[in-house]
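Input set for joint prediction.
Command: fold jointly, output tokens.
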Amino acid sequence: MIAIAETLDYDEVLEHFDPVLGLEVHVELNTNTKMFCGCANVFGGEPNTHVCPTCLGLPGALPVMNARGVESAIRIGLALNCEIAPWCRFARKNYFYPDMPKNFQTSQYDEPIAFDGYLDVALDDGEVVRVGIERAHMEEDTGKSLHVGGATGRIHGAEHSLLDYNRAGVPLIEIVTKPIEGMGHRAPEVARAYVTALRELMLALGVSDVRMDQGSMRCDANISLMPKGASEFGTRTETKNVNSLRSVERAVRYEMTRQAAVLRDGGSITQETRHFQEADGSTSAGRPKETSEDYRYFPEPDLVPIAPSREWVDELRGTLPELPWERRKRIQDEWGLTDEETRDLFNTGAADLVALTVDAGAPVAEARSWWVQYLTQQANTREIELAELPITPAQVARVIALIAEGTLTHKLAREVVQGVLAGEGDPDEVIADRGLQVVSDDSALLAAVDEALAAQPDVVEKIKGGKVQAAGAIVGAVMKATKGQADAKRVRELVLERCQ
Amino acid sequence: MIKQTAAELAARIHAGEISSVDVTQAHLDRITKVDDQLNAFLHVDAEGALAAAAKVDADVAAGKPPVSPLAGVPLALKDVMTTKGVPTTCGSKTLEGWLPPYDATVTRKLREAGVPILGKTNMDEFAMGSSTENSAYGPTRNPWDTSRIPGGSGGGSSAAIASFEAPLAIGTDTGGSIRQPGAVTGTVGVKPTYGGVSRYGLVAFSSSLDQAGPCARTVLDAALLHEIIAGHDPMDSTSINAPVPNVVEAAKQGANGDLTGVKVGVVTEFSGEGYQQGVLDSFQAAVEQLRALGAEVVEISCPSFDYALPAYYLIAPSECSSNLARFDAMRYGLRVGDDGDHSAEDVMSASREAGFGAEVKRRIMIGTYALSSGYYDAYYGSAQQVRTLITRDFAAAYEQVDVLVSPTTPTTAFKIGERVDDPMAMYLADLCTIPANLAGNAAMSVPSGLADGLPVGLQIMAPALADDRMYRVAAAYESARGPVLNEIPEL
Ligand SMILES: [Zn+2]
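tokens >
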């Protein structure tokens, strides 16, 4: 049983304490091969099928640096406004763990490839906060342990463990912020916004899938509190297992309230690793460390130093795409959006899709409405990313065009989209197969209108008496009779004609 | 037949006068006959060797040109090189029964060169030692006197060629493990320039120092083998991407015995206290011989060499403490305590306790300590600074001379058991050989005669990527000095 920690009311926390954050984000690069060997870098796969002597740490095997990995690291560094080291090395971080084949992780220590940068982060209300970047360094991922038996799913208490080394040696970039101070009540929001901005940046650079649910982006949050007005940081905890953007915010907020409760009662914070619990948003202490870990770093003798030339760095600087915040500003201006509309557009991940839909001929307003509202709902129901919905921007643009030309009503259009999502083909094919054309033949409609008028003579009297809005009841009956396939606007016109 | 040189055997095999199968079988027979007395081999792969030999014979019969100058000449491989499907133990209990799923680059190059691999030779556990007494599978004995050590860590390889069990062998040299066994067995041992031969598949002791090289009975044989195993390997980042120095040509040129115009530097630091008189006499005679061949001899001081040994015994253990961390019983190797009642951590600990010998544990502990936070600067950091100073001493010396010479070891082969309880005395065996490893330069040992009936080695050192220089000097010296091994007692 995990004891539920006491927490302090959030407002009360802020009356007495200033939070200080430090975020460490690991990003798995999407290079074709692993960082130090030729094995495929893919998520999943049968356990231990993407392995070789090097990433299994077999005796005698040696690492060879993946130049694409270095290139991605430099591009990330540049996009984070960092200095790029003219000369740096890998270092070995020594510690024993079964999912680490060599029992050392090839990482970087005091010579990171990129350092001293910043990332401008937009908060929900549009305010921009500058988060300092301490460093971005290269390292390799570990394998995965699956602990079988035991209550916690962690190694402690497990009956036995299974090891999968497919992930061992996958290139990682660890991005470490400088201490984030002075954010007050917005600290949790800043943490979420920072990771969100970082995620968008990685997507724009095309260097990672940044899927937090699959672990290709992972966040560790260092959190401490100091009494208001103090200048010395308090003892921090490091919360791991924060697997979604929302969890980043929740974890920071929870830790602030938990630490505050401990401090208020005169206790002191234990410097420890804590695990975020997705279910209730709390954090729980990891196994206490008896001694602080000494990683015995030293320069990796199996690899040569990295000395990126000025020319190469400049060349890579030239490959940087329009960065997310630049793009956000440009799109907001071009499309004339409010801050809130812009936020929704980007938070739903719809910006690219809307832009492509607009490119395919749709007006911005309609394209935005479809992606940000209806299709976002569809993605949420299916629990997938918007971009993963099986519908293309061109198909959405076609649906919008069909509405504009009167072939589809909004209601029919949604059915067509459902058909596309169900894999029934392009919008036109769905329309043909399901017979979803708007009924625009007046003679067919007139029969339905007359029938409805005959069924509700009292309404006819009201219309004839000048109460035009009563026509709605007749229109509704016609739409019902035609199973929604009639053009409501035309039906209304016909109703009014008949009642003259 | 087994007393012939590799070059002679190759010529006769390629001419169709003798078959590689016969040559290989003759060496296998020799192993069967004498290895009980020596324990030079940990594993003999008769089937694999004979199959490789048969392939060479088929090529000769079909009139195809030999795939390499040594095609068909068998070889003994130090058990630190991985061999696909053939046991590779590194002289350690921890790897008993392990069958590597891949070949080291050196192994692959040997196979591609049509060199039959007779088997895997004994060594100090994970190449840590100077006597082969640290092998988990018992010591190898020196064929000159089986009560004495054959040097180490590659004692098995040198003993095998000195006893005619193999005409050629591969060793690895981290602080002298090719040259010192060469010296005390009366054979030639070469540590090429660091990065000259791929380390891929060489089970690492100390990554920044380890270097594989040839062991042979003549300088030319060593050069022929050197040429086969050397060259850039994309699988080893520290492998040098430059043409292999023309060592075979240099050995042939040197054999004409003319060293006119060659400047030889005698390292003054390597003499005096701790050096056996017979070794110093032999060295003095060798220097006179070089002078007689036309070389200009000068004395050179390399003051930082005095700190080479302590620096080495910080750097090598530091790297080894990390390199050997992988032996944790999780994926391969000895596993102890996996009875369902022990955690993975317990199993790792128990397996390492049971799998490693005393010297390996000693070095892992020294290295772990030297890398600890708070001690790093004082130990590992300082040692790296010494390394820089040694490299500078070499560079300054090579501005004045072409090669440097010294005794290879301070003493001849000592008795088995004599130094096992005195690690410091054992470490002194590598006093003269270590500087070249720390600087990454080339160095070799050639027999310089006998002292008190036991072989002595002359060490010749050359700058990085100038391996050919030392081969020329060694070949000239060898041609003047004459063979040493014909004085070895019969086993
Ligand atoms: Zn691999």
